[in-house]
Amino acid sequence: MPYTRRETIFRDNVPIYLFTLTIMIPVAEAEGVQLCCPANGRYSFFNSPYPPHKLNSGVDLYPVEGFGGDALSPVDGEVVYLRQVKAPGGHGFEAADHDSVIVIRNKDNRDTVTKLLHADPLVEVGETVKTGDVIGTTIRSGYYGMGTSPHLHAEIRKPDDPIRARGGYTLKRVDQTVGEPVSELSGEVIQVQSEFTFIRINSTSIGLVGTVNGCPAILDGGIPYYRWMGAHLSIPPSEGVISLMGKTIGTITEVFEGSCKADCADFSFFVKDMSLFGISLTLQPRKEALVKLYPRKMGSLEPSLGDWLDVKLNV
Q1: CA 204 vs CA 32, 172, 177, 217, 254: distances in Å
Q2: Which residues have a Cβ under 8 Å from the Cβ of 148 and sit 6 or more positions away?
Q3: Torsions phi, psi of 301, nearest 5?
Q4: Element containing residue 172 per DSSP (H, E)
Q5: How far apart are CA 150 and CA 42, in angstroms?
Q6: Using the 8-state DSSP alphabet, how is residue 169 labeled?
Q7: 134-138 sheet: strands from edge to edge
Q8: What is d(CA 226, CA 49) in angstroms, rounded to the nearest whole number?
Q9: How would you class 126 by CB atoms within 10 Å of its CB: exposed for 0-12, middle for 13-18, buried for 19 or more?
């Protein structure tokens, strides 16, 4: 689902129009409505302590641009509600003093709306938007953690109950592919900041693949620091364990259609004998598995781009 954005620059006072083509990929659905993510972005159902993620009724959609970059609409529809809310101060970082809510009545099912958080709106109530349209700019919210990347939080809801943290429709992952479980966790460093390091692992899956009761499953969440996690597979069992590289890291507590939730076991990750705060796991539409490494102390893990890091799991 492509969209085209026009940008204008001036050369010798003559306007020159630049066009950027971005592909939007459906990643989550409920009630006949699909939520789309930039093809070069990331998404996650379970990587947040916010209640909708524990209920599988929220998905975070991560763009490529940094904070203050474009927030793209994940749906077609009409903007019906805008609201600014007070936000807490940043925990060790400078954050906006507010967050924003954008509500869009869905074109594909007008008996539903999509609630969006974490973007200052550039649209007005009554405005019609298409998937991929720029609807705002991303905010670094005080609700975030130190290393949280810019994203849109999205839920599909009833029109008469658009705002609450609970009450959204349960979401289903659109891309049901999984891939093969990894035997080791290692990859090339592709991004370095004092708060985190991204590595690209050797996998053609859309995420890091472990197992649920021995069956391949894509892992999703902030582990072990959130103390719970999710896993995606076609037919999740009602009970059992989640494993990574043959080691048990979670016990299943709840099952959804195409996914399950688990409490984390007692485990930790290490890089070069350095204990990590944890790893952040999302899904990538372009089938490129990325893993985000969080050090316990900001700036203590700063490899060079192109380095190869081996991540060890201690259970």
Answers
A1: 29, 22, 11, 14, 28
A2: none
A3: -125, 95
A4: strand 172-173
A5: 11
A6: P
A7: 70-72, 134-138, 119-121
A8: 7
A9: exposed
161 Cβ partners below 8 Å, 6+ apart? Answer: 167
Other Cβ atoms within 10 Å of 193 Cβ, number? 12
R_g of the chain, CA atoms, integer Å:
20
Tell me the β-bridge partners of 116: 102, 154
The sign of the dihedral angle between the CA atoms of 128, 131, 135, 141 is positive
Q: pTM for the whole thing?
A: 0.92
Instruction: Summarize pLDDT for 24-43 with one digit per residue, the tens.
Output: 999 999 999 999 999 999 99
Kindly state whether residue 44 falls inside one of the protein's structural domains: yes
Q: Tell whether 141 and 200 lie within a shared domain.
A: no
Q: How many residues does the chain have?
A: 315
Tokens of 254: 């709840």
Check: CB of residue 301 under 8 Å from CB of residue 293: yes
The 3-state secondary structure of 243-281, one letter per residue: EECCEEEEEEEEEECCEEEEEECCCEEEECCEEEEEEEE
Same domain, 206 and 295: yes
Tell me: do 288 and 201 sit in the same domain. Answer: yes
Amino acid residing at 291: V
- The pLDDT value recorded for residue 228 is 98
Phi, psi of 243 (to 5 degrees): -130, 155
93-144 confidence digits (pLDDT tens):
888 899 999 999 999 999 999 999 999 999 999 999 999 999 999 999 888 9
Domain that holds residue 45: 19-173
Q: Which CATH number is 92's domain given?
A: 2.70.70.10
Distance CA 177, CA 173 (A): 10
Alpha-carbon distance of 253 to 54, in angstroms, equals: 11
